[in-house]
Amino acid sequence: METTSINEVPINTTTGLPFKNIVNLTGACYEHVTVYTPGIWNSEYGESILEHAFYRFSVQLLLMFFLSHSMHFFLKYLHMPRITSEIMTGILLGPSGFEKWFPNEAKLVFPASPNQILAALSKIGYVLFAFLAGVKMDPSLVQQSGKKSVFMGILIFIFPFTMVHTITMSFRPEFRPSNQLSIGIYKGVGIVLGAITTSQFVGVSHLLNQLRITNSQLGHLALASTLVSELLRFAYSSLLGYMEAMLFIARRAGVQAIIFSMMLVAFIVVVLRGLVLWSIRNTPQDRPMKEIYITFVVGMILTLASVGDTVGMYYLFGPFLLGLVIPAGSPLATSLIAKVETPAAGIFAPIMVVFCSTSLDLEKFLRNYAKVLPFRISLIGYFLKLGFTFVVALGFELPVRDAAAYTLIVNVKGILEIGVLLSFGNLGVCIYIFPVFSSLIFSFPF
């Protein structure tokens, strides 16, 4: 056989016929770059220490935290929350700032290739943040708040999902075959509108802690109603996913997902809850919780997120449910908050906010505003949700001032909406405008 290049079809010299391609030999070659640099004085010509992953990651963290803390030092006098500084830091480090003013340096510090390290740390922070919200919540508040919180939670759950399905139905490709953008608009509107109009329990809990009104009557009502809405949202989203699996993949796959999800929920409620209560009973009142208990719970947080995502559940539901089954105010809950909250809220969550905000190109967004249909629809839906929540609060005989405060609290936007973008991939800049807008609104006390 004659020697041929890799792109040519080899010829059998005996028969004169080309050989059949059994194995694809095509591929791309990359220069091996070590994680550590040999040193600043031993660099080869044209080499930069930022080409090495460890040093580039260190510089990224240094820039993120230095800029965000420096910005918050001034913005805190305007009563701005920390998330505002973190989002603005991401904007400055993204296409609207650093990449625009220093393009060559930006390619070294934030290369175009996907940053798996920051993405993984962001996901971990997102999971821990949801878990801590569950740990701090006392589910008995729903019973203490009475039927009012249950009915309000059901109503603020039904309205956004009804609106999302009604609006997205008009953009289904089969209903608008002439519009080639219908598929992208259909998916974008569904995800962005659903994230913007849904009341997120984790965001509400975080806001109430910042405002220090968690133990007020209004705080209890907001927590109880959004908890009911959150549990209904998890159940409905999971059921919708199972139905889609049965219709578009295989009936067996949908049935398996339902069975595995029910087994996972039962494992959390029965087995893990029993272990949690056992560890609390076996710890003397004047002694701290053993480190093995804390380590086990933290390990279960990440395990439940991974297993839940594998069986077809939303990956936050497992850690959130685990946080709910841990008795609020117990020694275990206190120890978990003391050990997990600092890295989660102080390191991982800011990394997620800054990392996701680096995708925001303000100039591109303003230039193409007329084409960003999901954003405009979500903006209208957000204000409709505000009006509906206010009417519901008045219908349950809340004073006008309390109804207005309740409306703003349960519709707060921030970390959870940024986490939605992190979960579903890069949907553009639509979802970031609402966290900035909402953060500015909720910077000031009611």
From TrEMBL:
Native source species: Linum tenue
InterPro entries: Cation/H_exchanger_TM (IPR006153), CPA2_transporter (IPR050794), Na+/solute_symporter_sf (IPR038770)
Domain Cation/H+ exchanger transmembrane residue range list: 71-428
Gene Ontology CC annotations of this record: endomembrane system; membrane
Coiled-coil region list: none
Keywords: Ion transport, Membrane, Potassium, Potassium transport, Transmembrane, Transmembrane helix, Transport
MF terms (GO), sorted A to Z: antiporter activity
Family affiliation: Belongs to the monovalent cation:proton antiporter 2 (CPA2) transporter (TC 2.A.37) family. CHX (TC 2.A.37.4) subfamily.
Subcellular location: Membrane
Protein name: Cation/H+ exchanger transmembrane domain-containing protein
